[in-house]
Design goal:
The chain has about 190 residues and is of the alpha+beta class. It has a single domain, classed as DNA methylase specificity domains (Adenine-n6-DNA-methyltransferase TaqI, Chain A, domain 2). The protein is built from 4 helices and 9 strands, in the order ββββββββαααβα. It is globular, with a radius of gyration of 20 Å.
Length: about 190
């Protein structure tokens, strides 16, 4: 199994920095991925992206299928994966865009690896700041990645995806069960009179 620094297998860029909150445009030519668009399941949600007008965005800010988006501040520094093709979609700072440059590494495996406890513990130790914790680019780039062969990466990626999907489904079931029980309790309450 190969061990390398993250910067040896991927390119890390900070998202586009806006001087103020991005100005929403009804029929904008670009969509913007922000921190709020990274779901609890660590998948980039395209459902509520804001639209802006901006000419000629730099390639480094454009999201592509297979990119990993890393939260650089806050308590959760997990990576989210861009699972589908997205045209004219940029990533906003303070998010990082991680694009794999090595043909030997699969995005699904790296997504799994970055979100493991050992990787998250490393990032937590690197975080600086008293009120809002932030992780520096160099700290992320220096993270050591263990790379198995591509077949093992595929298997790990598939299993991790199945576990993630199961969590999402269980959360939905729990939410619906809670709604159902509250509804029953309200019916009982109002039928007492």
């Amino acid at each position: 199994m190969l061990k390398v620094k993250l910067k040896e297998i991927a390119k890390l860029d900070v998202g586009l920095a806006f001087r103020s909150a991005p100005k929403t445009a009804l029929n904008g030519n670009l969509s913007v991925i922000q921190m709020k668009d990274l779901g609890d399941d660590n998948i980039v949600s395209f459902d509520n992206l804001i639209q802006i007008n901006q000419d000629n965005p730099k390639e480094q800010y454009l999201a592509k299928k297979g990119d990993l988006i890393i939260r650089s501040r806050g308590l959760n520094n997990k990576a989210a994966i861009v699972e589908k093709e997205c045209l004219n979609t940029i990533v906003a700072a303070p998010l990082f865009i991680l694009r794999i440059t090595s043909p030997e590494v699969l995005p699904e495996y790296l997504f799994f690896y970055l979100n493991q406890k050992s990787s998250q513990d490393y990032l937590a130790k690197c975080a600086k700041g008293s009120l809002v914790k932030m992780i520096g680019r160099e700290d992320i780039e220096d993270l050591i990645i263990k790379i198995p062969d591509r077949n093992k990466q595929k298997l790990i990626g598939k299993l991790a995806n199945m576990i993630n999907q199961e969590k999402v489904l269980l959360n939905k079931i729990q939410f619906k069960r809670e709604l159902y029980i509250k509804s029953l309790l309200q019916q009982k309450l109002f039928n007492l009179n």
